Backbone:
């Protein structure tokens, strides 16, 4: 057990935790931020993607001790009113089906557009192919990203 | 979720059998009514179990089918709104409680939610509309025919207006018509329009709650180590190391039932999921594997091939196929194989159950809320009334969440530990434990006559059957022949099933046998077309009278530009199938790109009767195709009696860069609606294999396909 200090979505949190616990389970089971999802636990699917200092990471393999004091943003903190351009495009294009993978898709897409406001189709493919969707929403994800980047 | 009072409800079977039990109260004459009002003390009044109207005009429509991405959260209220005459974008949509008495079956399987209840849902909306009109007519002292319902209001011929909210109190006192007039499909304003799904905004900001997101006070998390070899029994286990892990509370052996067979495991219960997993990692368990380690892909293949020499039993027959095949000099024969597949809903399986002395509660994502209630009631002898079922959005189901085995584990552990227990399966558990889509061997044989027409065809399926996995009975059932097109006007046709039984459990997987049999059937039809040097679409049309099949096939030919001359670099393949009443035709176009074969386009045409929400149907088609392609590119393998693949690194899902452009064309129709959730899947494998043949001359008869290894 160790005293862990976190900054999540702008809020400071302090907890006594096993420092090797992956950030994912801290967010979900200790901070009640369940928008970040577990789906593989081995950095293969992207469902658990959050931003640390603006960079997307896979929280299922990231020990909580490694993110102490750093700015963590989860899907809950991406925008106040569900109005990040990516979220708006996602609703407009009716992207989600079951919705389970979508936090990871949205967090990954948001950071892609932050780095590169008009990615080519190939760049979108490269980045977004690391996030899995069993429901098959890929065609719509691509259209939604292209829509935002075209604006 | 608000409770709709259950008092005064009795059972009634409707003629169709689909909507088995709906709300009904004895009327004054003592006769049962199909539809009734459900009144409550709340400021709004429930006109029935689907519709609640407030005096302020607010309207709530209830969706009673669990939502796993299929879109009924929106499409069921759309049907109600159509007949009720309200603006779907202005009503509130809520998920209903789980109640067999109020809603009949709430199970979401086989793409049947809309198909089986379209009519009943319309009656629910229309009967509510009719009493609102009647209430207005009474107030104005005018004829019912002078009162028109529109947009949440009743308008009289001379221009007077009441909102539904102003009428609700009077309306709720009126007799509900049992056979209200239904709208003519030509008048539909909501049905058939691509309204935005109301669950979607909840799924873009983390707000949507899935089973795995719930926690209840006092609960422990559980992770269960189960025998990797199915049916393995626990010889002994040592929990001492596990109990040393901080946060671990208890280690308990448990079991669950999978299609009549008990499967054993050892559960670690802890304060956090992470602690439970850490504890599980240091459990020492000795398994008695019942000598099942011998089983592997090789033994299964060998055993299937041997079994295919037997005739099994006939599942469908016309003409005199056996004799013609026996007597013919030239019989064309081909065998096709498909592997086991896991469901892999993105949300891993999970359940929270609290079992007490005389009551129980479930929280989680399920395709089968009422099945869970009956299961717990039976197992612990608790009255169904004392079991509360709280169901959430599902992070995918694909058939896996229609089962109650995970609930059984959680209930068992709760009973033994006396606290609520949340069982979470890891992805590894999901892939290695199944149950799975059955693997199959299909042997097809045919005789072609002098005119180049198929004279006789035999399709033999060698596979496990979901409904018959244990016991002595080796007779294959009709279930096994799902997806075989008996509509081809082949004069002599025989479908045979050779039942296999194995220790590997099989289950319903999106489209079920329709996800495997058409690969063989439609590939073989293609082989026959090429054998007689006919165009594969023309060859199929020659054998089809069925108008819906013809329509989708003709449509897809036009849309996919089938007739356009092919270059050396492009191949096209076609396939057709029917699933849950929906007719589907698909053309896959493949190209050579940098020494590999890639799919450049998939064009589909489908006829599913009345389409409630075309955008949802398109999304479901895209989803079915992606899942179908995933099952073409990867499969599970069996080694040492167990599944070899553990996670996405060895059992890859389809990724965005493998996802082709998909075009979906929905045929306009006023026929009753059929299922949309699976119909795009069956044609994927054969249409792709046929396209690869067209491009390369190589015939794919075994899945998965290694797209990099073809050229
Ligand atoms: S859960 Fe972290 S990448 Fe899959
Ligand atoms: S929307 Fe269901 S897994 Fe992506």
Residues:
């Amino acid at each position: 057990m160790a005293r862990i200090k976190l900054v999540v979505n702008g809020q400071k949190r302090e907890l006594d935790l096993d420092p090797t616990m992956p950030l994912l389970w801290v967010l979900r089971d200790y901070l009640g931020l369940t928008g970040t999802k577990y789906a593989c636990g081995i950095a293969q699917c992207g469902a658990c993607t959050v931003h640390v200092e603006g960079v997307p990471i896979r929280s299922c393999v990231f020990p909580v001790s490694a993110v102490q004091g750093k700015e963590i943003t989860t899907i809950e903190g991406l925008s106040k009113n569900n109005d990040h351009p990516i979220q708006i495009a996602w609703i407009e294009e009716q992207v989600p089906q079951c919705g389970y993978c979508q936090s990871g898709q949205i967090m990954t897409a948001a950071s892609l557009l932050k780095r590169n406001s008009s990615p080519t189709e190939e760049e979108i493919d490269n980045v977004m192919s690391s996030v899995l969707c069993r429901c098959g929403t890929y065609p719509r994800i691509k259209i939604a990203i292209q829509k935002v980047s075209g604006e | 979720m608000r409770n709709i009072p259950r008092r005064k409800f009795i059972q009634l079977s409707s003629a169709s059998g689909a909507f088995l039990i709906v709300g009904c109260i004895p009327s004054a004459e003592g006769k049962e009514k199909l539809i009734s009002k459900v009144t409550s003390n709340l400021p709004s009044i429930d006109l029935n179990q689907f519709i609640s109207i407030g005096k302020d005009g607010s309207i709530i429509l209830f969706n009673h089918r669990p939502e796993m991405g299929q879109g009924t959260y929106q499409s069921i209220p759309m049907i109600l709104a159509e007949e009720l005459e309200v603006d779907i974008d202005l009503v509130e949509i809520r998920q209903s409680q789980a109640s067999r008495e109020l809603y009949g079956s709430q199970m979401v399987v086989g793409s049947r939610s809309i198909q089986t209840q379209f009519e009943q849902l319309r009656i629910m909306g229309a009967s509510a509309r009719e009493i609102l009109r009647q209430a207005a007519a009474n107030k104005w002292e005018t004829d019912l025919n002078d009162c028109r319902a529109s947009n949440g209001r009743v308008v009289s011929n001379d221009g007077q207006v009441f909102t539904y909210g102003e009428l609700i109190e009077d309306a709720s006192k009126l007799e509900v018509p049992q056979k209200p007039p239904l709208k003519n499909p030509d008048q539909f304003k909501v049905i058939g329009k691509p309204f935005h799904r109301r669950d979607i905004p909840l799924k873009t900001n983390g707000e949507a709650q899935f089973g795995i997101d719930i926690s209840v006070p006092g609960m422990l998390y559980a992770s269960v180590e189960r025998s990797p070899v199915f049916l393995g029994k626990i010889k002994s286990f040592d929990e001492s190391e596990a109990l040393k892990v901080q946060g671990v509370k208890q280690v308990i052996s448990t079991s669950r039932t999978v299609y009549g067979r008990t499967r054993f495991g050892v559960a670690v219960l802890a304060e956090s999921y992470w602690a439970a997993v850490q504890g599980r990692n240091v459990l020492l368990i000795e398994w008695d594997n019942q000598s099942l380690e011998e089983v592997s892909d090789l033994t299964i293949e060998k055993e299937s091939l041997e079994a295919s020499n037997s005739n099994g039993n006939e599942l469908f027959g016309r003409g005199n196929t056996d004799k013609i095949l026996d007597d013919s000099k030239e019989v064309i024969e081909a065998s096709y194989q498909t592997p086991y597949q896991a469901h892999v809903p993105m949300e891993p399986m999970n359940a929270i159950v609290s079992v007490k002395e005389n009551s129980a509660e479930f929280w989680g994502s399920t395709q089968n809320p009422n099945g869970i209630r009956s299961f717990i009631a039976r197992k612990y002898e608790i009255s169904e009334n004392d079991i509360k079922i709280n169901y959430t959005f599902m992070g995918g189901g694909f058939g896996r969440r229609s089962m109650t085995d995970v609930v059984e584990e959680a209930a068992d552990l709760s009973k033994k530990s006396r606290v609520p227990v949340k069982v979470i399966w890891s992805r590894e558990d999901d892939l290695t434990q199944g149950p799975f889509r059955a693997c199959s061997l299909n042997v097809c044989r045919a005789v072609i006559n002098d005119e180049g027409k198929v004279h006789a065809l035999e399709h033999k399926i060698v596979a496990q059957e979901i409904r018959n996995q244990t016991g002595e009975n080796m007779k294959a059932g009709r279930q096994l022949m799902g997806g075989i097109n008996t509509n081809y006007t082949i004069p002599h046709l025989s479908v045979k099933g050779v039942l296999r039984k194995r220790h590997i459990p099989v289950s319903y997987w999106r489209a079920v046998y329709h996800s495997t049999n058409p690969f063989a059937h439609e590939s073989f039809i293609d082989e026959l077309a090429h054998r007689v040097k006919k165009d594969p679409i023309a060859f199929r049309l020659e054998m089809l009278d069925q108008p819906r099949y013809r329509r989708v096939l003709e449509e897809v030919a036009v849309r996919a530009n089938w007739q356009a001359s092919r270059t050396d670099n492009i191949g096209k393949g076609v396939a057709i199938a029917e699933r849950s009443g929906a007719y589907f035709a698909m053309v896959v176009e493949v190209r050579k790109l940098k020494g590999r074969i890639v799919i450049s386009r998939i064009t589909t045409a489908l006829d599913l009767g009345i389409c409630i929400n075309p955008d949802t149907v398109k999304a479901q088609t895209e989803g079915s195709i992606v899942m179908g392609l995933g099952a073409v590119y990867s499969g599970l393998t069996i080694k040492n009696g167990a599944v070899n693949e553990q996670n996405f690194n060895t059992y890859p899902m389809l990724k965005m860069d493998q996802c082709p452009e998909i075009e979906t064309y929905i045929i306009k129709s006023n026929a009753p609606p059929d299922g949309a959730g699976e119909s795009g899947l069956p044609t994927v494998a054969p249409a792709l294999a046929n396209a690869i043949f067209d491009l390369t001359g190589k015939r794919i008869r075994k899945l998965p396909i290694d797209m990099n290894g073809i050229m």
Remarks:
- Chain A touches chain B through 59 residues (CB under 8 Å).
- Chain A has a mean pLDDT of 97.
